[in-house]
Write a structure and sequence with these properties.
about 120 residues, mainly alpha, 434 Repressor (Amino-terminal Domain), 7 helices
Length: about 120
């Protein structure tokens, strides 16, 4: 099987799985994209290409990144995202976040002991 065809089928399957996972009908998604339901059927079957604008709207509707829809790449783990964001803050903001983490740990500990 050609790589492009394989990629298109994976993309189509990811779109269908995302829609089904959110319990959205093809009709609902078609209305959100301002296309007909038959187009959604074709897209999910890998028989119709998706425009850049449609891809952006699929991403917004399903809550998946474009990269995740196209390539199946999973989003960054929260710890990685946190570390990257944390390192971009100044020292005062970092201290504030660390204090908040300590506070949340203390609350959890108290809830466990009272629980």
């Amino acid at each position: 099987m050609r790589e492009g065809v394989k990629t298109m089928e994976g993309f189509a399957e990811r779109l269908k799985n995302a829609r089904c996972g959110l319990h959205l009908s093809q009709d609902y998604v078609a209305k959100q994209l301002n296309i007909n339901r038959a187009s959604i059927v074709q897209i999910e079957a890998g028989k119709r290409k998706v425009s850049a604008g449609e891809l952006e709207r699929f991403s917004a509707i399903y809550g998946f990144s474009i990269d995740e829809l196209l390539l199946g790449n999973k989003p960054e783990m929260p710890i990685t995202m946190f570390a990257r964001g944390f390192s971009e803050l100044d020292e005062i903001d970092q201290h504030e976040i660390l204090s908040l983490i300590d506070f949340k740990k203390m609350i959890k500990k108290q809830q466990k002991s009272n629980g």
